[in-house]
Amino acid sequence: MITAKRWRLIESGEGSAAWNMAVDEALLESFKEGDMPILRLYGWEPALTLGRFSGAGRSVDLESTEAQGIACVRRISGGGILVHGGDLSYSLILPRNLLRHRGVKESYRYLCGFLVNLYEKLGQKASFAQELQLERESTNVCLAGNEPYDLLIGGRKMGGNAQRHTSGALFQHGTIPISLDEERFGPLFLEESGLSTAATLERLGIEVSIDALSELLKESFCESFGVRFVSGALRVSEAQRAGELLAQKYSQERWNLHAEHDQT
Asked: What value, to the nearest 5°, has the Cα angle with vertex 57 and ends 56 and 59?
């Protein structure tokens, strides 16, 4: 059980994929022992994100992506390529000792509990792929595959979640899809995208604004983990570091397409 009762809440609104990923890394990098755990909520301009080890060119038509002005940005977390633009995303940063008795898979199951609670509040039953006895299917594209602790509603995959572990912190981010622009994003994929079979709130007949969804998510989070929030913005040092990462890493083809970066 999470025992830290106060969490820092950062609601940073809609941003570019490069900025969003720069902020996530800056927050993880800045996190120190004794800091409050963090929940960050944010939205996206239309974009694709790649997992830390995703191959870009074999799954995505990069020329068409560039021609359409769709950003292609690599995350620091694992997992496959994911579509953004009609979704609300969250990031969690917490000390690893809060989950000291849980392995990677069990930590996914535990931390994703607030999402199960959120979907229940929206009238939906979400289940983990493992509970449904679905065979693991690893692919380069998030929505086309299945991992044991992916969430499904009505047999359809609902968004994605991915982690990064450092020596002292656990980072997890994920997305709640309100809608998917299949007509726009589908032709950009060179292999099965999973876009036609994935679940979204819109496809489930749920009409909800991103602001209302954010409020419901916060309520679900507090109920699930027995915590309360201390709201605030990025600290000056965090914003400065995010700006550096944006310029030196997340706006660079070398990182985004080839996973290469010099540590600074």
From this structure: 75
The span from the CA of 217 to the CA of 142, in Å, is 22
Would you tell me how many other CB atoms lie within 10 Å of the CB of residue 216? Answer: 18
Residues 97, 100: Cα–Cα separation, whole Å: 5
pLDDT > 90? residue 146: no
CA distance to 2, 27, 251, per residue, from 194 (Å): 34, 31, 27
The residues that are catalytic are 142
Instruction: Note the pLDDT tens digit of each residue in 171-186.
Output: 999 999 999 999 999 9
Query: How far is the C-alpha of 181 from the C-alpha of 31, rounded, in Å?
Result: 35
Q: Could you give the CA distance from residue 253 to residue 236 in angstroms, rounded to a whole number?
A: 27
Residue 215 burial by CB count (10 A; 0-12/13-18/19+): exposed, middle or buried? exposed
Least confident range of 9-13, 217-221, 237-241, 260-264 = 260-264
